[in-house]
Structures are given as structure tokens and as C-alpha cells.
Amino acid sequence: MLVAMATGTGKTKLAIAMLYRLLSAKRFRRVCFVVDRSALGRQTKDEFTTTKVVNGKAFADIFGLKGLADVTPDEDTRVHICTIQGLVRRVLYSESAEDAPPVDQYDLMVVDECHRGYLLDREMSDGDLSFRDQSDYVSKYRRVLEHFDAVKIGLTATPALHTTDIFGKPVFTYSYREAVIDGFLNDHEPPIRIATKLSEGGIHFVREEAVDFIHPPTGQVETVTLADEVDFEVEQFNRGVVTVPFNRAVAQELAKYIDPGDPDKTLIFAASKAHADILVKELRDAFRNAYGPMNDKTVQRLTGDVDKVESLILSFRNDPLPKVAVTVDLLTTGVDIPKITNIVFMRRVNSRILYEQMLGRATRLCPEIDKEAFRIFDAVDLYAHLQDMTDMKPVAADPKFTLTKLFEELAGRSDAEHKNRIREQIIVRLRRRLKKLSPEMRARFEREAGETPEATLNRFVQGDPVDLSKWAFERPNLGPILDWTDEDGTPRYMPISEHDDEVTSVTRGYGTADKPEDFLDKFTQFVRENVNRIAALRIVVQRPQELTREELRQLRLELDAEGFTDSKIKRAWADAKNQDIAASIIGYIRQAAIGDPLIPYVDRVRHAVEAILRKRDWTNVQRKWIERIGRQLELEIVVDRAAFDAEPFASLGGWPRIDRVFNGELEQVVRDINESIWKEVG
Q1: Which InterPro entries does its entry note (predicted)?
Q2: Rounded Cα distance, 549 and 547, in Å
Q3: Nearest-angstrom CA–CA distance, 454 and 457
Q4: At what angle do helices 535-542 and 585-594 cross, to 10 degrees?
Q5: Alpha helices in 484-565 (DSSP H)
Q6: What CATH number matches the domain at 186-396+493-509, 3.40.50.1220, 3.90.1300.10, 3.40.50.300, 3.10.450.50?
Q7: Residue 385: other Cβ atoms inside 10 A
Q8: Is 41 exposed, middle or buried (0-12, 13-18, 19+ CB in 10 A)?
Q9: For residue 116, what pLDDT is reported?
């Protein structure tokens, strides 16, 4: 079965509570909790060790818990945390059948982040085991899960096709939009799109132009005269062509919006490590030009190869510096940094799942810095590129697995069927390479292989996979000779573009509306056309004091489905009117429907509370309760009977106790406050 919950809504906490109940009821004997990275395994163990479940005791104090360091569970182990890589090794690559774990070792398997594909996080640093491609990942993943005679529960924020194939359709779903409406996650403002002359027109090299090419791993530069015209579009920037002017123009624009002196954090996604280095330099220069002297630690590259990467991640989360982290894929998932309020896309991705995981880095609430929403800066038109893509897109459709890795895997230990699949891939790639080998490459290949490339191709077509494995093992340098790209997919030589660039426009994405005024007009039209169809909308316009919390939630879901989120409406009003008013969604609806003045909701509540306190001679206890109700109204917008049975009121006695304080008149007091909120402008 599958449980789908948005990032940041407590999947691990839910799992701990669920496992406590299941183990307490003796429904299951031993649970395997599967993660796909060591860092997540350690984080999960910390959760099990610190989360209190009953009588002040943590889960690990009640049930036996084993972590990643323990290869096999003990007799009294009730939860065993494992990586999927470790399980693959134990199940599929054990020395003998007797060494493989018994099928009844676990009777329940809980798989965290079960959507994950091997390419979703290219900088996974575990190194336990690599997967050749998407089909290889899913094949091993499924074989390991099916090895155990156990119930399987998958936890994910973004279900993928292979996820539902294995676990079935979700039995419970709690979406990001619901979490935003319920106040558990932050929404994002309409994306800010930064367009430049080059991003819109592309980079064009003419025939016979002398162009510098750089070898990214070494920095070596060679000048080549082009035999033909070459064009690059924005999705190829910093992947297929180096363009410092584009990065400089975007960095200078970002400096207008991001102040490194503010307490919030910024996460930037680059195309490669080399691209990240360019961005770090340009951002430092842009910030210094805009704000004066600055510590280099303010902007840092955060990729898997930096020194003490785990320590740097902790600094980004907990310390004042760095303020800006430039990464490739390292921080796409599994890292909780609530202070991130800016997400910047400097590279295209083709996976909706990966895109949503990237956005998930900024959705956490952070009252400490008064975070109300986060911003998306899009320099590669990614938001529009992915708008219509399905959430169920496969995680990796065309992995760039190099010949170097294919030869290494063929030479390594694996089953005969696996070797044959590798052999077939090598044949296909060899055929492509043969047509394009330069005389120098051909000579190097013949020296290493002891035969021509054509003879090697014939060897692989006719040879036995086991014999080929030994042959490849004895010739480890063949792969690098044949590969034109490095392991991360970066071309060995990339042209350097010196074409000038400048920002041509900065716009916000309001869906089908190009301008904030158009968006507000569409919102007004929707409200007026549906005020008699949607009951909650009619209550907001005619009797706002009678609105319940559940009615407000359903109304927000209805507006959300039409693209009218709180964050978009507030941002559109600020952009169109040059007024940043912290009004409530009720205020915006009433303004659109009947022209009510737009007043900050906090001001409305405070005026209403003051009016109620002046209305009669309250006792000190009653006055304090009215002020408490007012503070809760500022947070929730609606405080009804149901609100008094939830926190913060429930632990103080709830409705019955508070009603006694008001001599049975609490209902009338709440009604008077709610009526006064909207009478103030009447």
C-alpha cells in the first residue's frame, strides 16, 4: 500500500505512530524501515530515538531498534533501519544462498521516499551500490522487496509510475496544496521569471568562427575553428556551452531582490559543479557591488565533492553563514532548512518529481524569521516548461550511463542475465562511437585493446558475457578513451560563449494572466459569478461572522483549484496597487464582491477586540480570554465552536471550561467579536 504526503507534513512521525500501534498490538513481529541514503538513515534513527510516543517514552525506549551499522537484526529487534543499497547487497549479492537473509526476517517493510529513482539525486554519496539505469534500479528494488514475505508500505511525497506499480495507488493522500491551506506549509508567490537577451534568442556561433573550448575537469582551453554553424538554446546553457555573461546578468538581477544581510537563506540549482563555481563568483561580485564588502562564506558551492560536506550542510541550516548555497542535486531531498525563502533555478530539469522535491526545500514554516511565503526565481523558463507535466512522470527516462561505467560494471561481479544486458548496451554505444572516432582516438584504442575498434565490436557481438567480463577487466582504460563526456554527463570540451548578455524583462507568472491587473480581474469575475453557487462564498459576502473553519477550508480548496491562492492574490494586489496589505482571504473576496475596503486583517481583529472590551464591564479573567481569542483569530481567521476543542484551547479546558468563565455566553461573545471584525468598515 502507498501513503502520499507532501514534503514537510510529517511522514516519518506518522510512520513512528503507526509502527507503535502495530507493534503494540502484535500485528507484526519485526519491521524493516528502508531508506535510500545513509544520511536519511541516520536522520530516521534520530527520529525514532527522540520522538515520544507514550508516557514520555521515546519509541526506541520501548521497542528494540537497530540502525545502519547493524547488518542483521537481533532476536529482540523490532525495527531495523536499512538502505536499499544494503538490502540489494544482502539479498542479490550474497556469497551463497545460505548467506541471504531468510524470507521471514521481516514481516513488514516500510519504504521511505519510495518514489526515488537512482538519477533523482546524482550526488548521492553513499557509494554502497550503483544502479545502471532506471530499469535496473526498479528491477533490483522490486526483487529485494519481493524476497521478503512481508506487507509493504511505501511513503512518498511525489508518487512515480514505478511507485504505483510496486505499491499500488495511494490509500491516503495529503497534498502540498492541502497542507498550505491547513497552515502546515508555506505557499510560494507567483514565480519571478528573469529573461535575458541570450535566454530568449539563444547563443549562435557562425561557420569558421574561432571559438575557445574548455575541458571542465582541468580548465584547459583550446581554440577551434568551427566547420559549421552551432546554436544553443537556454536549456543547454552551462550544460553544452559555458556562458559567463548570462550568469553575470542573472546574478546582478538577483542582487536586487536578495539581501545577504537578511536572516533568510537562498538555494540555487546549477547545471554542473563547474557551473556552480561560475555562479558563486558572479553572485559574490554582484552582492559586493550592491551591498559593499562581504565575507566569501556568504555564498558557497554545496555539492558532494566539497570538503566536509555534511558540516557545510549543517552550517547552512543552523549558522548565519552561508546565506546562499549553490548546488546541483545534493539538496533536492532529505534536508530540512526552514529558513530557505528563495529558490533559484539556473538549470532545466525534465522530471516533475525532481522539480517538486526541489521546491519542497522551501515549504517549511519558519516563524523565527516571519516567513509567510517563499519566492521562486526562474532564469531558464522552467516553471512554464513543467506546468503541464504529469506528477506521475517516470523518474529517469534516458540515463546517460557512460561506456566507462558499463565496462566497469561488466568487469565487476553480477549475474549472467545482468552481464548480457550490459553487453547489449555496450554494442549499441560502440556502433555509435565507431563512426566518430578521430585518428588519434582510434590509435589510442588499438594500443589499449590490442585490436581495432571494429574487431572489439565483433567480439562483443559474438562473445560470451562471462569471457567479455574478464576481457574488460584486463583493459580498464577502454571506457575513458571512448567516452566523450565525464561521469556527470558534462561534455569533455564545451564551447565558451563571450556573447554579451543583459536582462530584458522580469515578470511574474500569474498562470493564464500576464499582468497582476488581469489576474485580479479574473479573480473578481470568478467571485461574482460564483457567489450564488458556492455556499461558503455566499456566507463570506453576506454573513462572514457565521463562517466555520471547515467552510473556509473548503472555500480555499475551491479557489486553489482555480489558481487563486492566498499568496498569488496578495502578490498581485501588491504589484498592481503598489500596496502591500496583509488582508485575509475573506477581505479580498469581500473587496472583489462588494467593494469592501481592504484593511490588514490583524488591524480588523484588534479593533474588534477593543470594541468588545469597551462594550461592558468584564472581569479580568474574561478580558484575558477575549484577548486570547483575538490572538487566535489573527492566526486562524476563523474561530468557531470546533476551534475550542483543538489547541491551544483544548489543553486549557476547551469549550466547557471557557464557556463557564463567560457564564454560558461564550457563543454570543464569539459571535459579537466576529460581527465586529466586519462592522468596523461598515
Answers
A1: EcoEI_R_C_dom, Helicase/UvrB_N, Helicase_ATP-bd, Helicase_C-like, Helicase_Restrict-Modif_Enz, P-loop_NTPase
A2: 7
A3: 5
A4: 80
A5: 516-530, 535-542, 549-561
A6: 3.40.50.300
A7: 17
A8: buried
A9: 65
Rounded Cα distance, 536 and 547, in Å: 7
CB 192 within 8 A of CB 257: yes
- Say whether pLDDT at 321 is over 70: yes
**Mean pLDDT score across all residues of the chain:** 87
Is residue 394 pLDDT above 60, yes or no? no
Q: Which amino acid is at 581?
A: I
For the chain, what is the radius of gyration of the CA atoms?
29
Q: Where are the domains of the chain?
A: 2-181, 186-396+493-509, 403-482, 510-598, 602-679
Which is it for strands 108-111 and 31-35: parallel, antiparallel or unpaired? parallel
Q: Walk across the sheet containing 31-35 and list its strands.
A: 64-66, 77-83, 31-35, 108-111, 151-156, 2-5, 170-174
DSSP state at residue 127:
-
**Where residue 410 falls among pLDDT bands split at 50, 70, 90?**
confident
CB 234 within 8 A of CB 249: no
Residue bearing cell 551463497: 96
CB atoms inside a 10 Å sphere around CB 642: 12
Quote the CA–CA distance of 13 and 56 in Å, as a whole number: 15
Report whether 268 contacts 340 (CB < 8 A).
no
Using one digit for the tens of pLDDT, what is the confidence trace for 576-609?
988 888 899 999 999 999 999 999 999 999 999 9
**Strands 503-508 and 192-196: what pairing?**
antiparallel
Instruction: Determine the pLDDT at residue 402.
Output: 67
pLDDT tens digits along 489-522? 444 678 999 999 999 999 998 877 778 999 999 9
pLDDT band per the 50, 70, 90 thresholds, residue 226: confident
Domain formed by 2-181, architecture: 3-Layer(aba) Sandwich (3.40)
Grid cell at residue 353: 518529481
pLDDT for 517:
94
Buried b (16+ CB within 10 A) or exposed e, 436-455: eeeeeeeebbeeebeeebee
Q: DSSP secondary-structure letter at 393? A: -
Per DSSP, the residues of 202-232 read -EEE-TT-EEEEEETTTTEEEEEE-SS-EEE
Cα dist. 623→627, 655, 660 in Å? 6, 16, 14
Q: Compute the distance between CA of residue 472 and CA of residue 645 in angstroms, rounded to an integer.
A: 70
> Whole-model pTM?
0.78
Q: What is the mean predicted confidence (pLDDT) over 442-453?
A: 88
